[in-house]
Write a structure and sequence with these properties.
The protein has 564 residues and is mostly helical. The protein has 19 helices and 14 strands.
Amino acid sequence: MMKMKKILLNAAFVLAATFLGGCDDFFNPDTDVTLDNDDYISEESEMYSGYIGIMTKMQAIGDKVIYLNELRGEMVVPTVTAPTELYNIYNYEDDLSGNSYADPSGFYEVINACNDYLRKLKTYEESHSVNESHYKALVSSTLRIKAWMFMTIAKIYGEVAWVDKPMTSLRDLSQFDILDLDETMVACKNLLDIGYDNIDGTYETAWKDWVDPDTNLADSDYRRWDMMTPPYYALYAEICLWLGRYQQCINLILNEMNSTLSGSTNTSIAFLRNEMLFSHYFNFFNNETPYDYESASAIMYDYQNNQTNSLLKHFDSDYPNKYWLAPADVAVERFRDNEFDPLGNKTEDFRMKYTVSEYNGKWVICKFRPTSGSVVRPAYRDDVFVYTYRGADLYFMLAEAFNQLGRRFVVDALINVGVNAYISEFDMDSEGTYSGDWYGITPHWTVGSVVYNYTSGTSGIGSRKYGDRGIRGVECSYSNIGSRTFTSNTQSNDEELLKEMMLEMACEGKVYPAMIRMAKRYNNDYSFMSKYVGEKYESTGNASTIRNKIQNGEVFIKWDLEMD
């Protein structure tokens, strides 16, 4: 016991020194040094610090995932001062050789770091006595980062070089098996199923418990670390969605959400779209860290420790930022268009002001502008986080999967009115207690759930105060927003889901891949995609060219994997 405590204290020292301050070089690791050093895991504490090194490489590509998807998506346009590299991606150019934004090497560096770490971790474990549960969690979490990275590359480039062993340099990737998008999804599923060293992708890290066990969770500096790794249930569910394994996708997400909702006794509940969550909608992004009740996983940064991205540099117009990327006028107007966005008795969608703002006569993407209380943090800090999965992702994945299974009333609940509106679908006994399930959804989503409830400063056993209201649900001050229409036509319903994503997930790099996934589902019908992406090109006169490219399936960034 004393030995283990000493190890944990040592690990805590290493991690605190690197993640919380002081060691600048650690967060800018030299890839070649890392790869060439066969002994970088020479003691147990380095099992932990080595994994943090992988996460730093994720930090290097977090903003890039957004740029590469949004530039070719329906929302974002380059400004007049933007560099040619951004315009070339925006204009779907065929030749992007030498384009630093389009270069995929940063993504492959993450994969290479995962491969290298797994090999050296196994070597160390074979010759030392290590904490078995920690070892399994580190291996499993590394597998999930690796799978998420392969999947991300495939969604952007349409193909991946399946690199499954460490490389001393990132040169000619064409020597590896080249998998298309569909093949990549199968390979990612197999990676998580088969795993490494007989360990699959299901084990979770617990950084706070490992290195800071004596501190209350809310006070621990390590409480956010677990969020850096994509959780198994969300990652695997997305893979299932791409593979058409819809019921499995539903089961994975509902198992997590049902469990989370049943265990919560407060009015604020993780992932549940109720009034309490919506009253904190501004916190989803405009907060120093990911919002606890919305976040499933996120890539985080800390300016004080030289961890930055370039989102604000590109999006923000305040000096010293560049303001190279802006929301297209036509995209902004969708928040006010009653045909596109049923508004009920409102003139604009309440999410508009949390997504874009008008500054000095120009539209600016404000979604990634954190505040600290009432004070806006300096834009140059660039330490905003990037969600890999948040509550809205879970709702949309569920809705998409249920739609494919013909459950349009569930889709209506998840998007429009909330599960609470369908409370009659559950069984109720003589005492008013609800039970059973509705296509796998439990009463814990509703006000009919019996919980330990907090009311006016007093506590007692009662029903949940706020039930689920859906993605378009009602914030008290924004009541009566309209509902989308879902029919028996699954393709039409998918297009409605995409429209809703264009509002809820704007500028997050999520909509464009979803458009591709749905187009592939309907025999490569890219008409919806070409229509709404093409609209932002009308003002520049090349809308027809872009639409033709999209209609022909030229939706991925082209990059020659025969690298020098």
